Amino acid sequence: MTARGFGLFALMGLVLLGVGALQSWQLAITILNMSLISAIMALGVNMQWGYAGLFNVGVMGFTAIGGLAVVLVAQPPVPEAWAAGGMGALLGLLLGVASILAAVVVYKRLPKGRLRALAMVAVLVAGYFITSAVFGPATQAIEAVNPASEGYLGGLGLPVVLAWPVGALFAGGVAWMVGKVSLGLRSDYLAIATLGISEIVIAVLKFEGWMSRGVNNVTGIDRPVVRPVDLQTESWLQALAETLGWEVQQTASVVSGLGYAALFTLVLGLLIWLSERAWTSPWGRMMRAIRDNEVSARAMGKDVTQRHLAVFILGSAVCGLAGAMMVSMDGQLTPGSYEPLRYTFLIWVMVIVGGSGNNWGAVLGGFVVWFLWVQVEPAGRWFMELATAGMADGSDLKDHLLGSASYMRLLTMGVALLLMLRFAPRGLIPER
Amino acid sequence: MEFLNALVTLSNFMLVPALAYGSQLALGALGITLIYSILRFAHFAHGDTMALGTAAVIGGTFFLQGQGIGIAPLPTALLAVPFGVLVMVGYLLAADRLVYRYYRRVRAKPMIFVMASLGVMFVTNGITRLFMGVGETRFEDGERFVFSVREFRAFTGLAEGLALRNAQAITIVTALIVMIVLFWFLTRTRAGKSMRAYSDNEDLALLSGINPERVVTITWVITAILLVLAGTLYGLDKGFRAFNYFQLLLPMFAAAILGGLGSPIGAIVGAYVVAFAEMGVTFAWRRVAGYLLPEGFEPSGMVQLLPVDYKFAVTFMILVIVLLFRPTGIFKGRVL
Amino acid sequence: MAEPFLIGDAMTGGYGGADILHDCTIAVEKGQIAVIVGPNGAGKSTAMKAVFGMLKLRLGAVRLEGEDISALTPQARVAKGMGFVPQTSNIFPSMTVEENLEMGAFIRRDDIAATMEQVYTLFPILRDKRGQAAGELSGGQRQQVAVGRALMTQPKVLMLDEPTAGVSPIVMDELFDRIIEIARTGISILMVEQNARQALEIADKGYVLVQGANRYTDTGAALLADPDVRKSFLGG
């Protein structure tokens, strides 16, 4: 990293310390942790965009599927639900997959023509009815089990940290399917396909209550770090609070937050180390060669589509990992809260602002943009209050403007993205 | 009689709504396909600019309602459409001058244009929400039905009823008129032909003395008209919520790709295919089947292939099938 | 000697990097046919593009009817009366033949019916196919559309970049006949050709370029008769 990069990171650190000193340390830690997670997501997107020029507009879907992994791995299983329909649901899923495979076999084996199309449709329709006959009742039975607090199968009850690589695996699997279909065609087809798959992932999370409790949310997920409530009773913490002159509750949440920060930094550090090595390796050189001149890379006998697929899967897996980390930090999966502007397009702003094609740039972008995202809202409110100060209290317009202050940040992000793209397209820390 | 009842209930709950939805999609997809063929990028801000245009129309509607001006039985919003078009022409041209024109001049890669359209999307989204918030706004007024279920039953004596809502009828008629006018414009006028020429062969168009900036300007103006109409009709039909407009992006793109990117006729056909597929797959066929199947075979379930929440999955499947088997779309758009 | 109708005089330049043309002169008289031939990579197309203003000249000038047009853009040169038919993608494939011709006349504000009639008389097959998309026509017919499109501006000079590339010998002969007809109406023709022998047969003036410079310049017949030219460039 260059001196410029170091300087920018140091500045960012100072700003966060400033937030701690001026606003509150809890806020500073919250921003730090979410920045770390955002940085990992940005790193994932940067692999795809910076290394290969792939445009992934489905970041939200990949992070959400990573979040689902946390529930499936770490939540305790619900035995009654398993008894009620666990086997049925699994069998249903298997039947669904089997009918798709059967359709593929039909497609590959039969000669081209009307017969093949008919046979394929017949297989799919039959498969659909068999599958739903098994699947529907089973999931209904599961969702009927103690719906207020359970109504789903639960998970495997394994340690929550294990869920992180599993989340990456899930996201990678989805990416494989999307990439298989849309890579090798026009570059914007991938964008549209990923946009679609991310909407579908969210729909599945919201609707398949037997798996994710849908919009009822899964709460109280095991955390990898001791919770603040449990910390408060520790004598060393109480002593620490006394030394700092803080309240015990505040000290506990800061210490707990720092625990997450340490864990996340470890993961981020590992990922950066791996990406940096990949960047300078022959593989990285080849990827950039392909990105910069696809035609000549193809002419040199490189299987561009295959390489793109690999990097697309890798980047999406990193996004899935970050999604899993985020859910385990929050301790809950809330499918209703996934919004494309926040989870897809904001990540893109991070990559562009930070510097596409530079891992450190993407990380810095994650920090800067997340900081802005959090702080622009109070700033917007302040601005609106200033702007409306002259208006009579209680006037409709004033109330409306004050109430809309939070949308200022969408505007700000858009303007930031456009300005960077236009005047500093290489970002804060440009590609070497 | 059984067959007629089946047809009527099918029309009431699926065919008519799908026709209206397809018309709204078609107007949106036409805009996408036009921008694609002239400016050569996937316009990701389309859904959000549609929302902003509708917001302008809603503002105009509320103003007119406040003045007591209306055109009952038609909704006041139709009167406000020209105002919305004017606002959006200004907005899109400003976006073009401030954002896209620079990238045209440096001949940036299509992906950079797409990225810029993401920035425009953010800004537009913010502006729309500043005015409209995130909640739902209804702005339909005037007569609600062309004819209602009760009137239809009394008239035909059938057990099942069919209603035609004003918003649906207006949507279908307007879309038809707009499509005819658009095709007339593209095939009969000098400006329309120059657009097609530019889309076909940019360099030769330049050699022939066609001014690219003029073509681009005309394209944005047409896009503004199309998207304000599409957004207003959609809002009259289903109510205005900013996020729903963003979500229209996927079916609109699917329609444009299915028809063949760059092909206007393809965008229209694609839109209706997407609309009917979405509605057909998420439609509960029980009542229809009940009329058609012989006594004793009435289905017990809803006979719904997929729950409504998965309508995007249907769109996505269409997209996947197109990409797998015919990436150029039905009407051979461009690939690569 | 009087100044030729159109002349690219002592042109030196390239596409930004190293020079491709070196002191190269190309000229055509009113109503005559000038042909540029030479081996691959000799800068034939580049010389023509330089005359049309598609690359920047470092030295030299282009003059049309004595007027220096070196600073004009290609579009402005079209307005001055130069027509250009590129070698590839020289039609609007999804538009009909008639629309292609209309687009050719885009800068004209007067009635174009008479000019279109002339084009149809010159290429009768286009009249039959006027309603068909140009992209669906055969290679030779497409070339006719391309030439027809360029004629729609009523140019004084018509520039053709390898008009017979990729068409069969019979179609080639036919195209050359049409080109002679066009020249007879008073339009000067400047053309780059790969089929050197046939092209020189119809040429009033021939330019043999090698490495971006004039090697031989003479009448078409004289070049055909020149044993050196025959040996080196016409295959004996």
TrEMBL record, chain A:
Keywords: Cell membrane, Membrane, Transmembrane, Transmembrane helix. The keyword Lyase does not apply. The keyword Signal does not apply. Signal peptide: none annotated. The chain crosses the membrane at residues 31-47, 54-75, 81-105, 117-136, 156-177, 189-207, 254-275, 308-327, 347-374. It comes from the Bacteria. It is found in: Cell membrane. Its main location: membrane. GO terms for molecular function: branched-chain amino acid transmembrane transporter activity. InterPro entries: ABC_transp_permease, LivM-like. GO terms for cellular component: plasma membrane. It is a multi-pass membrane protein. This is High-affinity branched-chain amino acid transport system permease protein LivH. It comes from Roseinatronobacter ekhonensis. The lineage of its organism: Bacteria, Pseudomonadati, Pseudomonadota, Alphaproteobacteria, Rhodobacterales.
From TrEMBL, chain B:
It is a multi-pass membrane protein. It comes from the Bacteria. The keyword Transmembrane applies. GO terms for cellular component: plasma membrane. GO terms for molecular function: L-isoleucine transmembrane transporter activity; L-leucine transmembrane transporter activity; L-phenylalanine transmembrane transporter activity; L-valine transmembrane transporter activity. The chain crosses the membrane at residues 20-39, 51-71, 77-100, 112-132, 167-186, 215-236, 308-325. GO terms for biological process: D-alanine transmembrane transport; L-alanine transport; L-isoleucine import across plasma membrane. It is found in: Cell membrane. InterPro entries: ABC_transp_permease (IPR001851), BCAA_transport_permease (IPR052157). Keywords: Amino-acid transport, Cell inner membrane, Cell membrane, Membrane, Transmembrane, Transmembrane helix, Transport. It holds the Pfam family BPD_transp_2. Its main location: membrane. Belongs to the binding-protein-dependent transport system permease family. LivHM subfamily. This is High-affinity branched-chain amino acid transport system permease protein LivH. The lineage of its organism: Bacteria, Pseudomonadati, Pseudomonadota, Alphaproteobacteria, Rhodobacterales.
From TrEMBL, chain C:
SUPFAM superfamilies: P-loop containing nucleoside triphosphate hydrolases. One of its GO terms (biological process) is L-amino acid transport. GO terms for molecular function: ATP binding; ATP hydrolysis activity; branched-chain amino acid transmembrane transporter activity. InterPro entries: AAA+_ATPase, ABC_transporter-like_ATP-bd, BCAA_Transport_ATP-bd_LivF, P-loop_NTPase. SMART domains: AAA. Residues 5-236 form the ABC transporter domain. It holds the Pfam family ABC_tran. Gene3D superfamilies: P-loop containing nucleotide triphosphate hydrolases. CDD domains: ABC_TM1139_LivF_branched (cd03224). Keywords: Amino-acid transport, ATP-binding, Nucleotide-binding, Transport. The keyword ATP-binding applies. Belongs to the ABC transporter superfamily. This is High-affinity branched-chain amino acid transport ATP-binding protein LivF.
